[in-house]
Amino acid sequence: MRKSIVPDETLSPQLTQEFLDNAGQFAVILEDCGLVRLKRLTKQQLASSSREFGIIEKYCYLLETNSQPVIRDISFKNGIQIGSQYCQLYTLADAADLPPLCGSRINYDKYSTDKTKFSIGFAAPLGLLLPCNHIYNQYVFIDDAQATLKKLESKKLRLQSLSAYSRGNSIAMDAVNDFLNESISEQRLPIKAHFNVLVWTSDKEKLKDVKNMVSTSLAQMEAMPKQETLGAAQIFWGGIPGNAGDFPSNDCFDSFAEQASCFFNQETNYRSSISPVGIRLGERLNGMPCHVDLSDEPMKKGIITNRNKFILGPSGSGKSFFTNHMVRSYYEQGTHVVLVDVGHSYKGLCTLVNGYYFTYDEKKIRFALIRFTFLPEIPWIRKSVNR
Ligand SMILES: Nc1ncnc2c1ncn2[C@@H]1O[C@H](COP(=O)(O)OP(=O)(O)O)[C@@H](O)[C@H]1O
Ligand SMILES: [Mg+2]
Questions:
Q1: Residue 255: is it exposed, middle or buried by C-beta count within 10 angstroms (0-12/13-18/19+)?
Q2: Structure pTM?
Q3: Which atom of ligand 1 is nearest the CA belonging to 314?
Q4: Domain of residue 219, residue span
Q5: 81 lies in a domain?
């Protein structure tokens, strides 16, 4: 039993300062790569206020953004149950259950062709591609590397002396040996890692489907799904944002920083924009409605420098359909629209909004071809033509 509910270290001002310094250095290193920006959460964003839930309660009560504040019971008696939600926890916590190969990316077959690859993150099957409510938790613990290697050396010696008794020991010894060799020869940082996915549904009948989804996703990564039961509570509590220090270290596997980072989920979901100019679209994975500003917002953020658009796709892929929708959305926001309609795709829209539609009859039209056959030999014209 612990004497206090918070770790002793958090009560010492000196250690707290040291921790803040380290965290600050970590943030600088991450931001220096130019690809990520970090934001320190405020107390209010972590904890709750009377009207809005903080991230800690969002995790504990499985609340969605913008949902009404509600307090839910958490029970571990019959599996994990949070309010009326039935949960299941799947872990990647044992080196033996991991995929035999991992990489930073995989192909997404649905959007790839023979010639073009559409890359997604290696762990995307457990992230955006998992079609049910879930939280994917990722842990990497950087211990004292020297101490870890020393421990592994003595484990190797122990296995070596036992290898005469069983082939299993001999194989385990080889594995430890390989790990030690790789860490020295490739200068890899040994770390401990753990990944888990918490899925939930409010319909008990659907729990089976949800389980199948996770198993399929893990099988896609060629990993063995492990459904957590006894250790589930401890892993769940360790997952409270900011509480990773309480995570059970025996639920981690030894790996290197490079390999472990393959299991990070990089893709985020589409987010609705609050910009007043925009169009309503459905996000392509689940068809969820999304409000997107393709003009002013990316300009303001400096992603684009003008509002030109290029809509490209094979015949029948929905170019005209999308353009109709875009033009109508902008029209309703007060934009003036002048459209040259070659295929009569916008006649309906024009009638709908009581616009003017000018058209022509191909039989009655005569084309006048103007051709330039003579260029006077004046030096300044030459010059401008040559340019
Ligand atoms: N987002 C969409 N949702 C549903 N149906 C669509 C969508 N986009 C296109 N379609 C269907 O596909 C058909 C062809 O689309 P269209 O815009 O005419 O293609 P394109 O102009 O690229 O040749 C349309 O008649 C429409 O019924
Ligand atoms: Mg068209």
A1: buried
A2: 0.77
A3: 22
A4: 72-142+189-261
A5: yes
